[in-house]
Specification:
Layout lengths: L3 H8 L9 H11 L12 H8 L3 H15 L3 H22 L1
Helix pairs in contact: 4-5
Length: 95
């Protein structure tokens, strides 16, 4: 019985050791080089601005004002720390 892996290798005209040099040249000429789009990494300012596009962040910022009005700065600090954690997680995921 032929394994699924072996079937896929055969379908692509490859082998366990990879493409032959000749086949690689042919595919390079036919399909071109495999390149990733060079997406620009975001800086801190653009990351901050992008955070305001998310509804949950806007809700949290507006919710931060309520504890200040009620004279509860600790509550406001907790909400702002949640926003900061979210921004850091987004920055880490972006690279």
């Amino acid at each position: 019985m032929i394994s699924e892996y072996s079937k896929r290798i055969r379908n692509f005209g490859s082998a366990k050791t990879g493409l032959s040099a000749e086949l690689a040249r042919e595919r390079l000429a036919l399909f071109g080089a495999s390149k990733l789009n060079g997406e620009k990494r975001s800086n801190s300012i653009s990351l901050l601005v992008s955070q305001f596009k998310r509804p949950i962040i806007l809700i949290l910022f507006f919710a931060t004002g309520l504890p200040f009005i009620l004279n509860d700065p600790v509550g406001a600090e907790i909400i702002l720390s949640i926003v900061q954690i979210r921004a850091k997680a987004t920055r880490d995921n972006l690279g």
